[in-house]
Amino acid sequence: MPLIDILNPDIIDLEVKGNTKDEVLRYMARDLYDNGYINDVDQFVSDIYVREAEGPTGMGSHISIPHGKSESVQKIGICIGRTLNPVKWETGMTEDGWQDTRLIFLFCVSADAEFATNHMMLLSELAGKLGNDARVARLADATTKQEVIDLILCDESELEGTELKDTEEIVDLDIDF
Amino acid sequence: MKIVAVTACTAGIAHTYIVAEKIQTAAEEAGHWCKVETQGTVGVQNRITPEEAQAADVVIYAHDIAIRDQERFAGKRIVDVPISVALKQPKSLIATIEKKLAQK
Questions:
Q1: Least confident stretch, A119-128, A162-171, B49-58
Q2: CATH number of B2-103: 3.40.50.2300, 3.40.630.30, 3.30.428.10, 3.10.20.70?
Q3: Nearest in space to A66 (alpha carbons), one of A118, A22, A7
Q4: Do B64 and A55 touch (CB under 8 A)?
Q5: pTM of the predicted model, to two decimals?
Q6: ipTM of the complex
């Protein structure tokens, strides 16, 4: 299956309303519900918080990747939302543990590990693509759904020359081996 | 140098794969050969063979949960870090390994 099979423009929303993490999560869960991906908004959001409690899902560059496994899930997918307002989100990337999130990749995954494994493979491939800093920087500025889809699908070589705002300062880590 | 790495996060949905990409990129940008195995919800992908494991100069474990099949890496230099460290500072991770290996 090609990666595009997991990307559905109906659950890409570039005008997500809400001023808090909870408000935008519920707004996006509603998108998933309206499109038949989940059958219970409250249950789904509650399961997302189970994962949130295990560690931060803000990954810097104004991006967050909430995810969790829920019995409310009917179809595997990913809801991509850009918020109208920056939203405070827990992260391991900053000193104080908070970031301003504008772009959210809300993974919609079944609690049943055997469910739709083909789609799960695609989700893992998509997650890998979010490990590319240039891709993430460009996604943050995307203005149309098609642009979002194209940026996820495009090859790394097409992202060369992208200006990065948050570059890592190379320091000595306290590791021993 | 030759680097092999294994990533594994709690949910096995997102960080495992994002961090795999970050380590791969940071290692290649620094001029190293690198292979990263992911141990996630969809099982093991890009599996490191025992031969690749033994040929490696260093092994990175970036994880929050136990790494499976560690026997392959017996006797190797293993850098064990939380997945959050590799997510936040992949380049520093590679650079620190380079520096420490040169001192050994």
A1: A162-171
A2: 3.40.50.2300
A3: A22
A4: yes
A5: 0.94
A6: 0.92
